[in-house]
Every structure is written in structure tokens, then in C-alpha cells.
Amino acid sequence: MVTFLGINLFGLSGQLLVGLINGSFYALLSLGLAIIFGLLKIINFAQGALYMVGAFIAWMALQYMGINYWAALIIVPLLVGVIGVLMERYLLRPIANEDHLYSLLLTFGIALILQGAFTHGFGSSGLSYAIPAELKGGTKLPFMYLPNYRAWIIVASITVCFGTWWMIEKTKLGAYLRAGTENPQMMQAFGINVPLIVTLTFGFGVALAGLAGVMAAPVYAVSPEMGSNMLIVVFAIVVIGGMGSIGGAILTGLGMGVVEGLTKYFYPEASTTIIFLVMVVVLLLKPAGLFGKEA
To answer: Please, which residues have CB within 8 angstroms of residue 166's CB and are 6 or more apart in sequence?
Structure first.
């Protein structure tokens, strides 16, 4: 055991790794929520349930059709994205001009229906999903053993998150997305199909939840409750980062995962509440969130 100032470096680094892995999933889910709210002003309470659906589709694809993990990484987000497109087109668009509370309640109801349906079909016990053979094993580092799959999660999540941020903030496509949601009348005057942009944006935000579900399947047990357990934490992270802030969602998701890991090492009793305590402090000091803009 290697210690420094009385701190077990092996234990600390292990908890930091767990926190960074959790933070990677927080960042992906928070990013999807931030895109949907920031661009469309829709509070999507079904994001956690769709994360769970992504994990279950990956599990069923492997069990019943032999579709491996790498193919699922492509197929499952597309399928979950299609579910999102159908949700926006046939459920959310008819109430688009109503108060935001209607979309919140509707997506919350969808989440309950999905969770209930999968509980009825598969029970509440967790199902296992094997780590792909290419990512088994790990690397011995000075203060820890780094499993290859965990390292893949961190690298893939950060790449997807910052790639998405770059696309939205720095490219012409992102400019069209922002303009189409901020001033739809002007964009339609230029011949841009704004309803299609809205639908695809919602589908993309939901697809990120499906991607996170596939990546989480080999780490966590695939169960109907996995989405509801994650959603509350992710919403707190979005509030801390600033509702609608794309970069804030990414940085806060990764950062809160690390904070959670550190808390598990130094004061485990507070590890399940530390994110909510941070949220309370941030709202008291900066109600718009760390990266949010005041109304």
C-alpha cells in the first residue's frame, strides 16, 4: 500500500477512476438534456428512461440476434433517436405552444410507461452484458490498475461530448440549429425547414442517451430502474452547469463525477448527496448556474 500524507493512493486513485467513469455518463446524458432544453426549450424527463431503453436494446440485440457491442454502438443510438423523432413529431409538437409544464409532464409520463413496460417484460433484477473481448484486461499504472473498458468509456465519452460541442458552437450546421430555434420565422423565410431541424435536434439529444445506455450496459446491471436512478443526478448536474449550456453540461458532468469519487473516499456517507449539496450552494450564489446566462 502506497500512502502520502496518510492518504492511500491506490484507494484514492480507484475512487477517482470510478468518479470519472460516472462523470462520463453524467456528461453524455447532461449534454443530451442541455441540447434539447437549450435549443428547443423542452424539459425531457424521459431522458433517463431512454438511456435504459438503449441498454436493453443492446442486451436484446446480443442475446437474440447476435449483434455485438461494436455494431450496437451504431445501431442502438439510431433506434433510440428514431424513438425520439416519433416522440417529438406526434406527442410533443401538438403541445409545442403550450406551457413548458405540459411537455415536462408528458415526458415524465412516457418515462413511467417505459419503465413499467420493461419491468413487466424483464423483471426488476439486473441483467449482465459482457465486456467486448477487445477491451478485456487492463493496464498496470503506478497507483492503480486501469481496466481497458473503463479507459474506453472515458475516452469515447469525452470525444463524443466535445465533438458535439464543436459541431453546435463552431460549425455552420450548428449556426443553423441555433438560428432555427431562436428565430424560426426568419429561417423559414430563407427556405430552411425549421420543424425538421427541431425534430432532428430532439432525436439527436435522445440518441446520446441511447449511446450512453450501450456503453453503460457492460458496467452496470441492465435493469428498468437504471434510468430513474441516473436521471435525478443528471438533472441536478444540468442545473449546476446552467440550463441549456452545452459546454456547462459537459464540464459539470465530468467535474461532478470526480467530486463524487473524492467524496466516496474521504467521507462516504455524503457521496450520495454531495451533488445536490453543490446544486443548493450554486443556486444560492448563482441562480443561472455556473455557465448559464441570466434571463
So the answer is: none
Q: Are residues 292 and 184 in the same domain?
A: no
**Are both 190 and 265 inside the same structural domain?**
no
| Number of domains observed in the structure of the chain | 2
C-alpha cell at 5: 500524507
pLDDT in tens, 221-231: 899 999 988 88
* Cβ proximity of 248 and 66 under 8 Å: no
Last residue of a domain, one of 197, 221, 245: 221
Question: Which domain-ending residue is among 169, 203, 221?
Answer: 221
Amino acid identity for residue 35 in this structure: I
C-alpha cell at 132: 467486448
Residue 122 Cα to chain centre, angstroms = 23
Q: What is the dihedral of CA 118, 120, 124, 127, to 10 degrees?
A: -60
Give me the domain span that covers residue 78: 35-123+179-221
Q: Are residues 185 and 290 in the same domain?
A: no
| Summary mean pLDDT of the chain | 88
201 & 61 share domain: yes
Read off the pLDDT of each residue in 270-285 and give the average, rounded to a whole number. 92
- The pLDDT value recorded for residue 4 is 47
